[in-house]
Amino acid sequence: MAGREFEKQDQSQEDQPKFSGFAKPQGHDVSHEDVLKKLAEADVEVISGSSDGKFKLSGKRVSAIRSHLVDAFAIPGDSQAYVDGKQVDETHIVQAGQTLEFIKPSGVKG
Length: 110
Description:
The protein is globular, with a radius of gyration of 24 Å. The chain is built from three helices and five strands. By secondary structure, it is an alpha+beta fold. The model has no long low-confidence stretch (mean pLDDT 80). A five-stranded mixed beta sheet has the order 2-1-5-3-4, with no helix packed on it. The chain has one domain: Beta-grasp domain (Ubiquitin-like (UB roll), Roll).
């Protein structure tokens, strides 16, 4: 009886898909050329503390970018937005080639 249970386990394991290395997501045939193209299209650099990245965000308001990246970049709610080193308000629209940086005011802990 124990031998049959073992055979059933072996057979059920054979029916399972086998993975080796990194699994390729089903339905997503993304080549490295596509990834490089997306990176080349990234047109705005965003910086918050030690986090930074380039994204396709031109034409977006600072407030939209802040709300989109608040968790991933740990953007403090009291941080001030700077575009190319000049302080801007939340309604400022970021253009291609610009750098958006979120900076906590000096003298503020946390």
